[in-house]
Automatic annotation (TrEMBL), chain A:
Its main location: Golgi. It holds the Pfam family Exostosin_GT47. The lineage of its organism: Eukaryota, Viridiplantae, Streptophyta, Embryophyta, Tracheophyta. It is found in: Golgi apparatus membrane. The keyword Transmembrane helix does not apply. It is a single-pass type II membrane protein. InterPro entries: Exostosin, Exostosin_GT47. One of its GO terms (cellular component) is Golgi membrane. One of its GO terms (biological process) is plant-type secondary cell wall biogenesis. This is Probable beta-1,4-xylosyltransferase IRX10L isoform X1.
Automatic annotation (TrEMBL), chain B:
Belongs to the glycosyltransferase 43 family. The gene is LOC113702148. It is an enzyme of class 2 (transferase). This is Glycosyltransferases. One of its GO terms (cellular component) is Golgi membrane. It comes from Coffea arabica (Arabian coffee). Residues 425-441 have a biased composition (Basic residues).
Amino acid sequence: MRNWRWGLIGIVFLSFVIRTEAWKFSKAQHEHTERISGSAGDVLEDDPVGRLKVFVYELPSKYNKKILQKDPRCLTHMFAAEIYMHRFLLSSPVRTLNPEEADWFYTPVYTTCDLTPNGLPLPFKSPRMMRSAIQLISSNWPYWNRTEGADHFFIVPHDFGACFHYQEEKAIERGILPLLQRATLVQTFGQRNHVCLKDGSITIPPYAPPQKMQAHLIPPNTPRSIFVYFRGLFYDVGNDPEGGYYARGARASVWENFKDNPLFDISTEHPTTYYEDMQRAIFCLCPLGWAPWSPRLVEAVIFGCIPVIIADDIVLPFADAIPWEEIGVFVAEKDVPKLDTILTSIPTEVILRKQRLLANPSMKQAMLFPQPPQSRDAFHQILNGLARKLPHDRSTFLKPGEKILNWTAGPVGDLKPW
Amino acid sequence: MKLTALQQQSRRSNSFRGSSPLDSSMDGAIKSPSTLGAVTSTSTSLPAMNLTTAAASGTSSSRVVVGRHGILIRPWPHPNPAEVMMAHRLIERVQREQRMQYGVKNPRAVIAITPTYVRTFQTLHLTGVMHSLMNVPYDLVWIVVEAGAVTNETASLLAKSGLTTIHVEYGKKMPILWEDRHKLEAKMRLHALRLVREKKLDGIVIFADDSNMLSMELFDEIQNVNQFGAVSVGILAHSGGDGEDETAVVQKEEEKNSGLPVQGPACNSSNHLVGWQTFNSATFMERSARYVGDRAIVLPRKMEWAGFVLNSRLVWRDAEDKPDWVRDLDEVAADEEDVESPLSFVKDASVVEPLGSCGRKVMIWWLRVEARADSKFPAGWVINPPLDVTVPAKRTPWPDAPPELPLPAGEMAVVLQENAEKHATKTRSTRKRRSKRKHATRTIDERVSTRHAGEN
């Protein structure tokens, strides 16, 4: 009897040893990536299902479907996240049809879908559209007035988020739409100490078409032979003829300082091998344009090219889940003339580590909005971000009769009905 | 100037963004001092800013200021050579890391066996193979077996490679007939394999014939071989041809010959080796070359050595895990007078591993181009003694070609070496001094030619 018990202990011990050995072996196999943990901890791979419940308001189709029907280009431009997020939430397990048990409320209004013939969104009607939507939900459901929007979230992926303007000075002048003062904003724009980024916002990457990028993948053993790569405008002569406004002069500075430098493969050409070239480059420049954010960051992460971010005080997507300082290189705009010195003086080990972090598939997934949605993609990261803000604190719920929002604030033009 | 040049470049103008932001409705908050030039080429510490928009909004303003900034350009916007070197070192390190992660794990050494002999085309062929082998990213041992005796020509060629070479001789001279030559090459390769056995060289053996062409992917692919592998060889048999007649006939032959010019393993749909693809030489038989250098098509044998790779341990005397299907080297050499291909080493051909996506990818090409056996070429391709002029140059200080050129005794020969340069200045100056006195230049010429004749 005793022998039998000893045998059992022996078997348990052996299985434990074997399991740790197997774990070590599998870890060694994945040596070319590294786990990513940001300031909020190791949260990139969290599963939001079960951690929050979202109620989706049913708005009349003039706020969403009809707009999309008028212009289907909204599904492919870089602001398409608002549409895909709506679709994702409709069929997600976090959706609840019972608003009483919901933690968060989502209003599906496509404010970035009024496009010019060139495909750029006009923000002039967006404030009125948003206001009209909020008026609708506050009158038809009691949940808005209960918190004045503090447990509601809105997707505003436009240039300067809920400031609803493409020109920075005008956007700052307008500020965030007063009605959204208490709501959580999910936006692509992020810059510290900026009017258009309010505390508690969730920064997301701009939409980049996943299939298009996957179709241009090249074998990973293709040697990376380009040191620095960039394709795009340096001067915006149409809108900034004198120079100095576009990108705060940073892009022009890159051009003037490095156009003759063979290590810098930079130009305004739009080659057909753009994605393939990024996979053959070690550093990809992601300088600001008219707004600090750009799809180049997403492309650089997907293609394993270390992003060189030239945008002062920028807040990058999912900044609490992804430790961007360890993954990318941040260069101050005033340091652009020294860019070559900065990049060549980064120790080799640091560069290899950054590449390992970029190779982590969770990192790439978190930047994408795939159709159909996959686990750990940007949709789930947004939900994770919302889940991390739970439970709502006491200031969320207002006492009966308490009013904070000023429904008549803002420019007079915003008050017109939509 | 700069802006106009750029206007031609950029066509993507977002016209709806309105005209210059200076038209904004902000009250006097934006001033654009014309003193602030668009391009400032001073030092980097230029204070860029001239305005804030903090007054407009009540909340905390961004430290980053909106509005017009100067374009910072450093005084010497050109690359620093030390930094360029560091960048290249970085690139090299990144690529090495890439190879370690995505390339072959635990790469094995490559042992290349090349039979060669001194002839006109040797430098051409051997340089080709040498450069290919120099680019191989793995450890390499190059065994060069020379027919006849070890010569300085071959040795000096090999010395330029910087590779680990073993240069040995194989007593017999290379015969003239192609058939005999193929047989001798096979014996030379066996000799090299004996060397591998003696020295107990460890790695993957490939047979790099000197006129063949190897691609870099081949070396990556053969790292996958376990014991005995086969790759597809592209057969370029239409070489050393005569001219247009030849090519026309050859094209017709090609249409008749529906087979591909490839020799290698053939697999079924589940990627198992089921047989061999060979080059259909039947149609070329009548016009095939018989001896080296006759301008006819050189045909390969049924399965060329070049298409096989083997683990060097297969030829070792006592290797522990030697499989039982391999025959001993000496046994094979003694058994067959002519070992046509390494397949003689295996008792059962089904153990051969097909490489290169089961023979579908051709990474090595077989070619035989040779000059006649009696063709002369300068030793080591260094011209010494100096050449005879066969075609006089136009518009040089040299006199216009006298119709007597070329003469057998080389009387009107003109020196082309360093004396030639001196001579050139001399005639030029003499021509200048004695303007247009052709007979004067001619006398100088004659003087030189007699001197040259004396040299000869």
